[in-house]
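Session log. Operator J.P. requested a structure for one protein chain; no other inputs attached. Running the standard single-chain path with token output.
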Amino acid sequence: MENIFSTAVSEQVIARIHQLNSGSQPQWGKMNVAQMLAHCNVTYALVYDQSIPKSNAFTKFLLKLFVKKAVVSETPFKKSSATAPIFIIKDAKEFDAEKQKLVKNIQKTQALGENHFEGKESHSFGKLTSQEWNNMFYKHLDHHLRQFGV
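Structure written below.
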């Protein structure tokens, strides 16, 4: 798995994002490109936006039991995989704004680095290792960039 905390990998992912344009079409799935970028930004909102309520203990237990491994492992996501309701983007989004926001989120995450994320609590899965955070961040971005052919 590529290391999203490294400058080279972050820059490579950002370069792929810059290949997108407002007319980019998905190879699978229902989201348009602006919705996809907004969808990817949800991951970072769950990390950086303290106003988003955390899952309750029972929900977190179920997510850890049934979902965590699929999200934080190195196994790629399948096309058109199910997603949590908070990640479903149905309304119109502004392409350039979502793109800029995602680039800034990637840069912030890379600048904070692996040590910042080691043992950091996630909204859904409890404490994760920096490797699990990396897998979740990189795998999700790579999945959706491949969805749009970049």
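Operator note: Residues 24 and 48 are 28 Å apart (CA to CA).
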